[in-house]
Amino acid sequence: MSATGGPRSASTYPSLPFTERMATVEFRVHDRAHIVVDAAVCRDCSVRGCVVACPANLFVPTADGGIVFNYEQCFECGTCYLACDREGAITWSYPEGGHGVVFRHT
Amino acid sequence: MTAPTTTTGPGGDVTGPHLTDADVVVVGGGPAGSCAALVAARAGLRVVLLERGPFPGSKNMYGGVVYPRILDQLIPQWWTQAPVQRWITRRSTMLLTDTQAMSVDFRSQAWAAAPHNGATAVRPEWDRWLAEEAAAAGAQVVCSTTVTGLLRDGHRIVGVRTDRPDGDLTARVVVACDGVNSFLAKQAGLYEHADAAHYTVGVKETLALPKATIDERFNVRDRDGVDIEILGGTGGVNGGAFLYTNLESVSVGVVLKVPKLAAQQRRPEEIIAALKAHPAITPLVDGGELVEYSAHLIPEAGLAMMPKVVADGMVVAGDAAALCLAAGIWLEGVNFAMASGMYAGESVVEAVRAGDVSETGLAGYRRRLADSFVLRDHRKLRRAPSLVLSDRVQHRYPPMIANTIERMFRVDNPAPKPGLRRILAEERKRAGVRVRDLARDAWDAMRTFG
Fold it and tell me: What is the ipTM of this complex?
């Protein structure tokens, strides 16, 4: 059903790895990141609402106390910049025309 | 779709009203943008509709139900051609606690017949269909083009900048239908500030199931469909949940208040997993194959967050103007988008013909919104969003109600039946609800929904 991934069974969901969940969604990835996260600002943030709130789970805390952000599988929803209370941590824009998420069954 | 090369223009140096690339540039090929473009193109204006996705609807996601009657005015007998999954003939309002469920279930076969009431539809199909209607009316639909900002001449908005080479596009009026994040409305200074508390994030799974299985589980036939709105089931995060039947899939998901989601530890997909594991939900979705996972923001606060919708040379419609009705038992958005787009189109036509596209010349838009259901529903239900998402409605009333009903129906022989008033009083205390708060919320609900 999906362009990039196969169907998954809901009854087996609890063991469905997140990567397979995201593989049900089509992304046309541009080489420019449309969202940039300033790890220096994130370093002294203890709240980190982005990590739990991003539906695509793109904010990953690192061992050294920073945040790594992966833009490739972004829903372009805007939850992260709303959840973030640190000025300048997240620079947010839309991907280039024709790129980014392509919904099919929404 | 038309070749994009024709959209490049002379830049922002506008010296007269006839030197623009278009009369109207509509930004965003969702339901608001397509209805605005349709109306303006039918009136003979030169209309360009810009969509940043590869096709209209490709960036759009919602719960799953559209109420299309406003289209009677634009596309007569729209139901004969609209890409509908199922017509809603059953509406359930469900209250969930961890172990209990209570439903108010209504069905009307009248809704199975034209002109129907609600319908499930998927946005990549619905939005593409509406954009094709706009194109058929003469609007030039240009996809894969992201608008990066407004062109201005002094305080006037005179066009948009796109991400295409030489991609400035001048117009007499810009119609901003660029969705819930509307960077154009923000750039024009129409939003005072974005308050995270005004937004929810909708997260859903589209689960494939055979049509016969859906028909059997949801007790429907043919193209009849079911809309289940759920209070509770959101893992303690303020919001709500939903379950809708498409033709050969179901949409199950949650709507979560952003600051509340960010302040706890469970991720959205874990909250959906718990919802699907609820004994009242599992039998409906079990075995469904995940065909797509998706998310989108919702402007949830109604009038409290609504921006100014008119500027010199620009009007704002749809989610970009926060025209989404999140009033508990009424959850509507696409109809508000289509209507506001239609009224925006009419007002732009009026302004261009009168030769005045200033804020004053475009004021007919605000008037049309005010005179129609768009603002009248929002005014009537202005207290609803905060009431529905309040901590008492979200966390205290569901167990209070469910426990009361459980004890009412529990046959505890040899104990005799207790009186309902006593049960309710005990459960109210157990839920930590004060009488005066209950009275105030009941009064609020009466004023809101009465």
Answer: 0.93
**Cβ–Cβ of A14/B143 closer than 8 Å?**
no
b/e per residue A57-96 (b: at least 16 CB within 10 A): bbbeeeeeeebebebebbbbbbbbbbbbeeeebbebbbbb
Per CB-CB distance under 8 Å, the chain A contacts of B273 are 13-14
Strand, coil or helix: B159: strand
pLDDT in tens, B104-139: 999 999 999 999 999 999 999 999 999 999 999 999
A contact residues 66-105, partner B, Cβ 8 Å cutoff: 75-79, 82-83, 93-98, 100-105
pLDDT at residue B436 tops 80: yes
Nearest CA in chain A to B267: A52
Q: Which residues in B304-317 are b (16+ Cβ under 10 Å) and which e?
A: ebbbebbbbbbbbb
Range of the domain at B71: 4-81+122-195+302-382
pTM for the whole thing? 0.93
Across B6-34, average pLDDT = 70
Q: Are both B172 and B202 inside the same structural domain?
A: no
Domain for residue A16, yes or no? no
Residues B202 and B167 in one domain: no
- Shortest Cα distance, chain B CAs vs residue A84, angstroms: 9
Listed residues B382, B407, B423: the one ending a domain: B382
